[in-house]
Write a structure and sequence with these properties.
The protein has 399 residues and is α/β, with parallel strands linked by helices. 43% of the residues lie in helices and 16% in strands. Mean pLDDT is 94; it is low at 392-399.
């Protein structure tokens, strides 16, 4: 290895010593409530398959039929020869789902966020981002060349001050998660729209964790019954969570979508997703729209977990979403509790910096429509045992 790269090994060693080293786990079966992880069957409480569709037989059947019809690859970008009828039909279905004029497919949520922000703003424009936004939103703002401004998490007074102090004739884009991926709380959307309208700014919402989960027929946090494209000009959604497939989309007015087709480099220069995935997602959109029982069952499991965890004395975040974080502070504490729960049959990954701020390492517990009442009871029992064991160890270590 070249002389200039010798620090890589030292960096890795220091990261491991701080409890921040990340390792992949090998999963040996499809996504679901139970997973075989490194050869051990565990109850899965850390995935984003919120409606239990990632291994739904109807979605799988549509995917197989899509492979038979379209093959395994799209062969090129959408603008060359990769835009199939399946892609086109999915874009139309997604636009109908969120009740916006048009939608545009991207290969991933990361690509959609970075590509959209960079197409919309540059120097001398301004972009304003919540401090707890997803990495893809932050990266999109940082590399856009626009003036980048933080605002404190969900603090609309801080946002208003910042937009006011930077007001000029350039473009102003306010960017936020709909539901924050690590805390599970929702952005104060109505107040944010008020700030944007006062300053003639645009609002971009990444509703990755809300689509399919909340709103009429699962339409998401940006419910079209309450918010239109005059309120939230740019809506981003992902397909790898509640929809159970892969990819992402941006929805908005006709001119916005045409502009992104011409300007979004992540769209222009990426091979289109396989058409079979588009075919599978068409099936999942129909299921999400019609099977409201999935959202009702998920809501029951969320309420069951929160009630049980509060009875056990856990300090819960103010989240009514499927994301239920347990803050533990240090990376070592999060790793220790994750390992203890795994030994008790529950798979919950430890989330550590830089994914979350220093001092807020946690277990990110996620609930899905596939979980049963008995599954959540088992999780609560495991949490109680693990918490009791750690208190005993802590008491002994301080004697």
């Amino acid at each position: 290895m070249g002389e200039g790269f010798k620090e890589i090994g030292a960096w890795l060693g220091a990261r491991e010593a701080r409890g921040l080293y990340r390792q992949r786990r090998v999963v040996e079966n499809p996504q679901g409530r139970e997973m075989i992880v490194d050869g051990v069957k565990l109850l899965n409480f850390c995935g984003n398959d919120y409606l239990g569709l990632a291994n739904d037989p109807r979605v799988a059947s549509a995917f197989k039929q899509g492979v038979d019809q379209w093959g395994t690859g799209s062969g090129a970008s959408h603008l060359i020869c990769g835009h199939s009828r399946a892609h086109h039909e999915l874009e139309e279905a997604l636009a109908d789902f969120v009740q916006r004029p048009r939608a545009l497919l991207f290969s991933s949520g990361y690509a959609a966020n970075v590509g959209t922000i960079n197409a919309l703003v540059s120097s001398p424009d301004c972009v304003y981002e919540d401090r707890l936004n997803h990495a893809s939103l932050l990266d999109g703002g940082w590399i856009s060349r626009a003036q980048f401004h933080w605002f404190e998490h969900a603090d609309m007074a801080d946002l208003d001050r910042q937009v006011e102090s930077n007001h000029n004739d350039a473009k102003h884009l306010i960017v936020t998660d709909g539901t924050f991926s690590m805390d599970g709380d929702a952005c104060p959307l109505r107040d944010m729209i008020g700030v944007a309208k006062r300053h003639d700014a645009w609002v971009m919402v990444d509703d990755a964790h809300g689509l399919g989960v909340v709103g009429d027929n699962g339409c998401g946090l940006v419910d079209p019954n309450h918010f239109g494209t005059d309120d939230v000009q740019v809506l981003v959604g992902t397909l790898g969570k509640a929809f159970g497939t892969s990819g992402a989309f941006v929805a908005g007015e006709e001119d916005l979508i045409e502009y992104l087709i011409q300007r979004a480099r992540n769209y222009i220069f990426s091979t289109a997703m396989p058409s079979a995935i588009a075919a599978a997602t068409l099936a999942s959109v129909a299921i999400v729209t019609t099977e409201s029982w999935r959202r009702e069952h998920l809501e029951q499991r969320i309420q069951q977990f929160r009630s049980g965890a509060l009875e056990l004395g856990f300090d819960l975040a103010p989240s009514m979403s499927p994301i239920q974080p347990l803050l533990l502070g240090t990376p070592q504490a999060a790793l220790e509790m994750s390992r203890s729960l795994e030994a008790d049959g529950c798979f919950i990954s430890a989330i550590r910096p830089p994914t979350v701020p220093e001092g807020t390492s946690r277990l990110r517990i996620t609930l899905t429509a596939a979980h049963t009442e008995q599954d959540v009871d088992r999780l609560l029992q495991a949490l109680e045992r693990t918490n009791r064991q750690q208190r005993v160890v802590s008491t002994v270590s301080h004697q």
